[in-house]
């Protein structure tokens, strides 16, 4: 669910080219942003006059639609809904589950006709575009009224859904990265299981031993380098001392030596045959390679815990990322719950948001073993949910991680970024010259935001 700027299918990979409450779906991103500024709701009274938070009475009556995109989380979301409707028996909440791609198509279409769900999931790549154009309800009155408090949540996730000092999202979960490994494969090819404190060099040596020992039948290490930077090279970039965007997200860091080194790390893995090729990863996702026993180690996230466990059982292991010259920090992200600026049921929607952002809902998420809640102190049931796995590696990753890089038009510059880096990963372009070109190109795009 997910980390930021780019995401694999279940956590946020979508090319959002337009969004408006009128018929602007065919426009380019730049034109859509201009159109949204004209078509969005009033910033002073978004969604009408009755938008100020007040505690909902227990007999409040409403019918709410809650839109999500992850089928694996539906049972936990239903448990949360059941808890909420116990407190508010006259409110009904229907869960609307879509596949990730169709979810965003539906959200764009509904935004154009003021028919958005009462509450719905939001991810970092799309947040600023929706918020800037007044599609989302500011939650200032909930913060001022004590229904939401920053200190209750992971700071990085809270800040991801804050724009111009206004909070728009209620943090739902934490995403963090680690390295999953297949114990059986490592043992079969005489490779020791990785231990905390391992390095890039250790990872590469293990990957080489697997490929050599299997005669090339099994790959050593991979990740979604063909589609998701924040789950692959963004991590190695920071681990080498570079960065994708500077601290205030106004300039990119593709001119930094550490950034070049972090991209080179993945280029070399691919060039040396330690990972499936870009074409192979496009045809068959890295997680399918790993689940099928054809990949010994995989860069993955918290949301893959249950799928990988189902595939490998007790042969599954997890470890913190291997360290580069500047550490082993990884991208930290997460989803939030939001409501539309034009709301048919503002008081009931805010009551549901308040419940979704509370400890009871957070514990229900943690107990599902699918995601780590963003509510502080509620994650222990997740970390302790599987005796054979040390899931607290994710706790450490969240504590020392960096925020997912995002701007108003994240999808625009990330599309260019991926398009330019794929030839590097296929061996058709040089790392240094491509990074130089990316530095200029992305900075030009950022200057236009």
UniProtKB/TrEMBL annotation:
* Localization (cell): Cell envelope
Coiled coil where? Answer: none
Keyword Disulfide bond: yes or no? no
Keyword Magnesium listed? The answer is no
Q: Which UniProt keywords apply?
A: Signal, Transport
What is the organism field in this record? Brachybacterium vulturis
> Signal peptide position in this chain?
none
Q: What is this protein called?
A: ABC transporter substrate-binding protein
Q: Name one GO cellular component term.
A: cell envelope
Q: Name one Pfam family in it.
A: SBP_bac_1
What family does the Swiss-Prot or TrEMBL record give for this protein?
Belongs to the bacterial solute-binding protein 1 family.
């Amino acid at each position: 669910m997910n980390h930021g700027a780019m995401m694999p299918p279940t956590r946020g990979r979508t090319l959002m080219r337009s969004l408006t409450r009128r018929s602007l779906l065919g426009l380019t991103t730049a034109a859509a942003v201009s159109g949204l500024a004209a078509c969005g709701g009033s910033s002073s009274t978004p969604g009408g006059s009755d938008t100020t938070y007040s505690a909902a009475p227990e007999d409040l009556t409403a019918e709410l639609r809650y839109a999500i995109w992850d089928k694996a989380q539906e049972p936990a979301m239903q448990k949360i809904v059941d808890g909420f409707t116990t407190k508010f028996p006259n409110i009904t909440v229907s869960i609307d589950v879509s596949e990730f791609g169709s979810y965003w198509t539906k959200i764009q279409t509904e935004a154009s006709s003021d028919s958005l769900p009462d509450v719905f999931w939001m991810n970092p790549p799309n947040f600023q575009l929706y918020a800037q154009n007044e599609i989302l309800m500011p939650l200032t009155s909930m913060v001022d009224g004590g229904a939401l408090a920053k200190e209750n949540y992971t700071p990085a996730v809270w800040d991801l859904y804050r724009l111009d000092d206004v909070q728009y999202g209620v943090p739902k979960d934490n995403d963090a990265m680690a390295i999953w490994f297949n114990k059986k494969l490592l043992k079969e090819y005489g490779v020791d299981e990785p231990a905390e404190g391992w390095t890039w060099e250790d990872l590469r040596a293990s990957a080489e031993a697997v490929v050599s020992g299997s005669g090339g039948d099994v790959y050593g290490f991979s990740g979604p380098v063909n589609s998701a930077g924040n789950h692959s090279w963004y991590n190695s970039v920071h681990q080498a001392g570079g960065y994708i965007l500077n601290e205030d997200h106004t300039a990119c860091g593709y001119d930094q030596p550490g950034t070049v080194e972090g991209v080179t790390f993945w280029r070399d893995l691919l060039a040396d045959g330690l990972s499936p090729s870009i074409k192979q990863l496009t045809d068959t996702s890295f997680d399918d390679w790993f689940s099928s026993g054809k990949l010994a180690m995989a860069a993955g996230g918290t949301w893959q815990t249950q799928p990988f466990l189902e595939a490998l059982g007790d042969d599954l292991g997890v470890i913190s990322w291997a360290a580069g010259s500047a550490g082993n920090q990884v991208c930290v992200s997460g989803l939030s719950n939001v409501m539309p600026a034009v709301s048919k049921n503002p008081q009931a929607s805010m009551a549901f948001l308040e419940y979704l952002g509370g400890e009871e809902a957070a514990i229900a998420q943690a107990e599902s073993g699918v995601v780590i809640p963003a509510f502080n102190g509620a994650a222990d049931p997740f970390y302790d949910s599987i005796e054979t796995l040390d899931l607290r590696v994710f706790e450490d990753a969240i504590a020392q991680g960096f925020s997912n890089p995002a701007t108003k038009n994240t999808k625009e510059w990330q599309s260019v970024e991926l398009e330019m880096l794929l030839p590097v990963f296929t061996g058709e372009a040089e790392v240094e010259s491509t990074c130089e070109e990316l530095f200029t190109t992305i900075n030009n795009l950022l200057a236009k935001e």
